[in-house]
């Protein structure tokens, strides 16, 4: 896992409160560096079937694997880096114009995503050659 200033991987930490259960929370701007305009989650992904394979023109995202584990791969056109998310209190920030892929979903994985913009299909770059031209 990379942690240098030039890394594509920007880890986010949210608080974990232990009581009779675990409670996690995320707030802007303390934990999420953008105003949250959309929240969604991925469940019941087919094991062994990768997802993602896109970038965004304008949207930043914060991802947290709140159950299970997932391998995230990031690509800025010059380098690729990967990280495994497997702790609900640790997430990753995906900046706009960073190609991202999701691999190795564990059974029953739940991936929670906060986005800086509402859904707009025009914001997606789904072709890698188009991505390379855009950056």
Question: What is the arithmetic mean of pLDDT?
Answer: 94
Radius of gyration: 15 Å
Compute the number of helices. 1
The end-to-end span amounts to: 24 Å
Shape: globular
The portion of residues forming beta strands comes to 35-45%
What is the quaternary state of this protein? single chain
Compute the number of strand runs. Answer: 12
Strand/helix succession? EEEEEEEEEEEEH
The percentage helix is under 10%
Low-confidence spans: none
Main beta sheet strand tally, sense and closure? 5 strands, antiparallel
What structural class do you assign from the helix and strand content?
mainly beta
Strand order of the largest sheet: 1-9-6-11-4
Short description:
By secondary structure, this protein is mainly β. The protein contains 1 helix and 12 strands; from the N terminus they run E-E-E-E-E-E-E-E-E-E-E-E-H.
Keywords for this entry:
135 residues; 43% strand; 5-stranded antiparallel beta sheet; mainly beta; 12 strands; 1 helix; single chain
């Amino acid at each position: 896992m990379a942690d240098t200033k030039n890394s594509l991987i920007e880890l986010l930490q949210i608080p974990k409160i232990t009581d009779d259960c675990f409670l996690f929370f995320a707030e802007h701007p303390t934990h999420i560096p953008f105003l949250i305009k959309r929240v969604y989650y991925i469940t019941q992904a087919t094991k062994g079937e990768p997802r993602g394979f896109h970038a965004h023109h304008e949207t930043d995202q914060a991802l947290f694997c709140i159950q299970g584990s997932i391998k995230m791969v990031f690509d800025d056109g010059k380098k690729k880096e990967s990280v495994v998310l497997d702790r609900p209190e640790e997430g990753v920030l995906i900046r706009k114009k960073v190609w991202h892929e999701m691999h190795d979903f564990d059974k029953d994985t739940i991936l929670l995503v906060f986005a800086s913009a509402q859904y707009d299909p025009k914001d997606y770059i789904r072709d890698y050659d188009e991505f390379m031209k855009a950056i």
